[in-house]
Design a protein that fits this description.
15 strands; six-stranded antiparallel sheet; about 375 residues; about 40% helix; alpha/beta; globular
Length: about 375
């Protein structure tokens, strides 16, 4: 999979931009606050329909403008496919091959991206919400079923919480709502467990290549105990757990059980990395998990995703930089932002396209 062209109109600090990417490694070079990250954000939005930096889509539209557009051309499996995102104050429109897509699950998945930024190094030591978001964003790209159920689950969760906030509510209606909530929750749990099992296998290989003496494992930490992930058993256990928390939920006016409360633990040699791991182990774990996604997507989709590296090289030491570059070179189209080329020149074996970024203007500099 390759992104061959990117066009921006009134996106962030770019009024008009048209870039072509014939090569596999594209480096955006410039000082901070010049617009380098905005390019990677645009590619991410084109893939995921939303930003990784803000939940307010109005921030993506240039100052004093009413709308923005992101257009991209991708090549996958010997076909060329145009994608488009239109952003307005009223919302967004998504188009595939010039046809508007009504459902998010019909759009996401055409362009697969993996973003690795300095904040992703906190994937291990950050809070549970950060790890849940990681699972949701990555799994949502490769499973339309998961994305559909996740949207449905969040809608049901919002409705259920709204009912629990009422002093008096229709118990029968809550029961019907809860039944649908459990159905979606069970599918989400099953998909997460299958995804994490596969991701763990790839992450173990990546981690072992960096730290051969260590074994990385995952442990899913659900908000309720269950012995089987089989649909009938899991449904019964989920339902029983909600009944057990019924009085607490009514007192606290919120849903206390479900995938929205779960967590993911990372273990090295059976010790929790979040609690007991060194900073080096935490960074190696985060890097291994991110790199594992590349091979997992290739296994499931038959093509490598696009990799977005937002100023992450400066956060890694030489050995981790080398491992990252060896993993992606010649396989994965990569877009990388940096303030200096010094740490790249000594490690790269392929010739990149270098784009200099200054005050919202971009010029193709060529190669080293």
């Amino acid at each position: 999979m390759k992104l061959t062209q990117l066009q921006l109109e009134n996106f962030r600090n770019y009024s008009q931009l048209n870039l072509h990417f014939p090569n596999s490694l594209n480096i955006f070079l410039g000082e901070n606050a010049q617009g380098k990250t905005n390019i990677l954000e645009a590619i991410y939005v084109l893939a995921m329909s939303r930003s990784h930096r803000t939940t307010n889509e109005k921030e993506l539209i240039a100052w004093q403008k009413n709308s923005a557009r992101i257009l991209g051309t991708i090549e996958k499996k010997n076909t060329t496919l145009p994608l488009e995102i239109q952003l307005t104050n009223k919302g967004r429109k998504t188009k595939v091959n010039h046809l508007e897509q009504k459902r998010l699950s019909d759009y996401i998945g055409h362009l697969n991206v993996i973003l690795f930024a300095p904040e992703d190094l906190a994937l291990v030591k950050g809070g549970p919400a950060q790890r849940r978001r990681f699972i949701d964003m990555e799994l949502g790209q490769i499973s339309p079923v998961y994305l559909y159920e996740l949207v449905k689950y969040n809608r049901l969760l919002k409705q259920r919480n709204a009912m629990l906030k009422q002093e008096k509510f229709d118990q029968l209606l809550l029961d019907v709502l809860t039944e649908e909530f459990v159905k979606s929750g069970v599918i989400i749990l099953q998909q997460r467990l299958r995804f994490l099992k596969k991701l763990e296998q790839w992450a173990q290989k990546m981690h072992g290549a960096i730290s051969p003496q260590e074994v990385l494992t995952f442990e899913y930490a659900p908000s309720f105990s269950f012995e089987s992930s089989e649909t009938k058993a899991l449904t019964e256990q989920f339902t029983a757990a909600l009944k057990q928390k019924k009085s607490q939920e009514q007192f606290r006016h919120t849903t206390l059980i479900g995938p929205h409360r779960d967590d993911l633990l990372f273990l090295i040699n059976e010790r929790n990395v979040q609690t007991f791991g060194s900073q080096g182990q935490q960074r190696t774990t985060a890097l291994s998990v991110k790199l594992a996604e590349i091979d997992l997507m290739k296994e499931i989709l038959g093509e490598y995703p696009i990799l977005l590296l937002d100023d992450v090289m400066s956060e890694l030491d030489d050995s981790r930089q080398m491992h990252l570059l060896e993993t992606i070179e010649g396989r994965v189209q990569t877009f990388l932002t940096t303030t200096t080329l010094a740490h790249l020149k000594k490690n790269l074996t392929v010739q990149p396209d270098i784009f200099t970024v200054s005050h919202g203007t971009i010029e193709r500099q060529g190669t080293f």
